[in-house]
UniProtKB/TrEMBL annotation:
<dbReference type="InterPro" id="IPR036465">
    <property type="entry name" value="vWFA_dom_sf"/>
</dbReference>
<dbReference type="InterPro" id="IPR002881">
    <property type="entry name" value="DUF58"/>
</dbReference>
<feature type="domain" description="DUF58">
    <location>
        <begin position="47"/>
        <end position="255"/>
    </location>
</feature>
<protein>
    <submittedName>
        <fullName>DUF58 domain-containing protein</fullName>
    </submittedName>
</protein>
<dbReference type="Pfam" id="PF01882">
    <property type="entry name" value="DUF58"/>
</dbReference>
Length: 297
């Protein structure tokens, strides 16, 4: 069922400005978490709290006051030296669209929001794309002192991102993110694999010094399959087409999807890996808030 609270991706897309949408989602998220401690998914960000007597008025976020009519200040924080790597699936299935929102558009807003959190925390961050089984560096790692520049480069990369073709494992074997300190990999994908190519790669990457978060983005119709009548279905990666009566295939499809998602969840219950499953109809801040709250608990 579609959520009605928070900013929906369909509304954010109309702004046609990833920097603004990322900032709006992040502020909505920070206002929704009522804790004076920093929340960590690796991306540690400053929390907002209400102004109290004795606080320096200069710490008030006046731009936020103009929007909320509330005197809010940021909690102080220390710089993070952790490397955050965003990894975006750019295979053809990311073009899947529901209610005017493609999976790729949703993914880009989600990543822009996370990148904004990194920016205000002065985190090191970089962006990679997965296309045709290969890892492409879209925006390389930047130092904490150039968080703003890294943020802007990631936004440019997201704005130019396009999805096409099948996902294959050719060329990815042996690829390694090189680092000498703790880091976090944040994958954004539909995670609809033909075999176990995604699982195998993630298992090889996870470890004590590398935490992995997987955001799996799915459409309501992909999971519920509530279609009726004859449809021509087209595979967004292979371009193969199939005509069938959707209602007659619904029961088997839903059972297969439930089984796949359950098996995937079980397979990813390994150390240092976290699965976040989100529907494209959910407000992005709500998805991030639920995850952060669960991590804190």
């Amino acid at each position: 069922m579609q959520k009605t609270t928070g900013l929906l991706a369909s509304s954010l897309i109309k702004l046609k400005n990833l920097q603004l949408t990322g900032k709006l989602v992040s502020e909505e998220l920070m206002l929704g978490i009522h804790s004076s401690k920093r929340s960590g998914i690796g991306i540690e960000f400053e929390q907002y709290r209400h102004y109290e007597p004795g606080d320096d008025p200069k710490r008030i976020d006046w731009k936020l006051f103009a929007r909320t009519n509330k005197h809010l200040v940021r909690e102080s924080s220390t710089e993070s030296d952790r490397q955050i790597r965003f990894v975006l699936d750019l295979s053809g299935s990311m073009n899947y669209t529901e209610n005017g929102v493609s999976r790729l558009q949703y993914a880009c807003i989600l990543l822009a929001s996370l990148a904004y959190l990194c920016y205000i925390q002065n985190d090191q961050m970089s962006l990679y794309g997965l296309k045709a089984g290969k890892v492409e560096t879209i925006s390389g790692a930047g130092s904490a002192s150039s968080a703003r520049q890294a943020f802007q480069k990631i936004l440019v990369g997201l704005e130019k991102a396009s999805a096409e073709g099948p996902w294959t494992t050719e060329g990815i074997e042996g690829f390694e993110f090189r680092t000498k300190k703790k880091e976090q990999l944040i994958f954004v994908s539909d995670f609809l694999q033909a075999d176990d190519e995604w699982l195998s790669w993630i298992r090889s990457l996870a470890g004590p010094y590398r935490e992995i978060v997987v955001f799996q983005l799915l459409g309501d119709r992909e999971t519920d399959f509530d279609l009726k009548g004859f449809y021509r279905f087209r595979d967004l990666e292979s371009a193969r087409e199939l005509e069938l009566d959707a209602e007659s295939a619904a029961t088997a499809f839903r059972a297969s999807m439930r089984s796949y998602l359950a098996d995937l969840k079980t397979a990813l219950q390994i150390p240092h890996v976290h699965l976040v499953r989100a529907r494209m109809s959910e407000p992005i801040a709500q998805v991030l808030k639920a995850f952060l709250t669960r991590r804190k608990g």
